[in-house]
Amino acid sequence: MIRKASSPAFEIFEDDVERRSFAFFKDRTLAEISGYFPSDFWERLVPLATFHEPALKHASVALASLHERFEKGDRSILKSNKDIAEGGFALQQYNKAIRYLINPPGGDKGPALDTSLVACVLFACFETLRGHHGSALSHIRSGTQILNQVDEEGREHGREESSRQLCVPLETLDVVFSRLDQQVVQLSGARPMSLPKTKRNAHPGFCPDIPAAFHSLEEARNCLDYQWNLCARSAVDFPYRKHMMEGTESQEHRDVFDVGRTHFQAVYNTWMTVFQNFLERNVATMNSKSLQGAMVLKMQGQLAAMYQEMDTLQLLHDETGWDEVIPMFDNLVDLVAAIIDSQKATDEKLLHKPTFQLDQSTISPLFTVGHKCRDPVLRRKAISMLYSAPRQEGVWDSILTARACERIMDLEEEGLGEVKCAADIPDWRRISDIEVSFDLQARRGEIKMSRLRSRHSNVREPVTDVFEW
Description:
The protein is mainly α. The protein has helices spanning 16-33, 40-52, 54-71, 88-102, 113-129, 133-148, 170-188, 217-237, 241-246, 251-282, 288-309, 312-317, 326-346, 363-372, 376-388, 398-413; strands at residues 355-357, 391-393, 396-397, 432-439, 444-451, 461-468. A three-stranded mixed beta sheet has the order 1-2-3. A three-stranded antiparallel beta sheet has the order 4-5-6.
């Protein structure tokens, strides 16, 4: 039996500090966190959920408290002690949110499904802003695991059904977590989440088929995200992956792999064609934010297509194959520069403060250029852009990413003298299979990677490098 929604969660604030932080959440955090795209999730559904759920109200207050200080460049938010001057208020609100999740009001034995999932998103944002990237990734993985256990009727296996209706539809949360999951996969190499193929009322474009025409940027974006997930899962589930990694694949294995690669080449080419047609019909009526969003999608589509154009089997054993797509790297850098310049032109405040958004846009492509493009000029330009425009995109931090790229570049170029072109870095010096993690409090970073031990080696070996700043 469904009971009436609970009473508003923020009728009474405990003090003016709570009230002020919640106002900042509504006025600033929600406006910035959605990035370059309009978001029903952030603009309507999250405020609605916080209105009725005390756990989400306190989580949003905690996030807003950190976000305001992040904008001011206050590095004390990275400290985890209880002193209010060092961020204790935000941690107190965070702990209150957790207590309400464990003991929700209204007699329920556990939080409603959407409350748990929205809390995972807010907690991931909170942990990201205070530099606890491992915790942020864990919250995202918790959310994806919950969604993977939900059946067609929206019930999670093993969870006692809540007595209240959902404020945030599961089909919306499917989209939100698919985008967060991309960040987890790219940073940690984790297995991509399983997306619904027929269940629930999927958002336009968020399905296996590419439509003949897109009717909105959101539909184009949903479609690209869904196809990315299918492609990533296909790579992870490839039955002969172990043989490929070890260099013991047969011709039959290569043929099967080439069939999958050809399929996704066609998929991304189709998406690019449909998206280009959409732009030609609509670009004249787009506002500045929509134009920025369109550039982000174009860049992400080109990046996905570039990976499919590469002979991945060759790259497993010879990183010099990346030199063939240096013109594509150049184009990616130009697109990122155009996006950043356009954003600053429409909001002069961005010239003087770091920005925070949940979804990735410019940092991940620059990371790709920074560690895969060995052209010394382009590579350094990408790293410089990461340093010059401080921003947080989900778990991606531009400054930390720049440091990681710089370290990878130094490891590859060390002892080679002056590097004038990509060909000056031989394959045996090049690094692959990179996973990056950071410990901000200790001011340390760790790079897990593969590389040849010497110019005479044939097999790439795992190596871990620790760097400090």
